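[audit] Reproducing an earlier prediction to check determinism. Same input, same settings, fresh worker. If the tokens differ from the archived copy the diff job will pick it up downstream; this log only records the rerun itself.
[audit] input (93 residues):
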Amino acid sequence: GAQGAILAVGNFAAKLCYEIFQAFSSQQAETAQNEQLKLLTLSEQIASRYGVGGIKYAMDVLGYHGGTVRSPLLMPDLAAQTAIQTTLNNFQL
């Protein structure tokens, strides 16, 4: 079977994705599972809720180059930006 993943949150939470991979590779299943739950929550609260615009905004907040979305997609409004920033802060990203 294949080894890997396609992760939207990997664009702004690459370190967390790597930590999951390392824990699993080192047979630390409980650690990998705990980190996976964090990743799932990030995915739900940012990627699933705000889509590509939310991912790009999270990247910008964290110092990466997210840039803007192409039409017809929209960037997050001010309320969404605040929610994304709060989520990132809560996860200490």
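[audit] rerun output stored. Observation attached for the diff report: The chain has one domain: 8-90.
[audit] end
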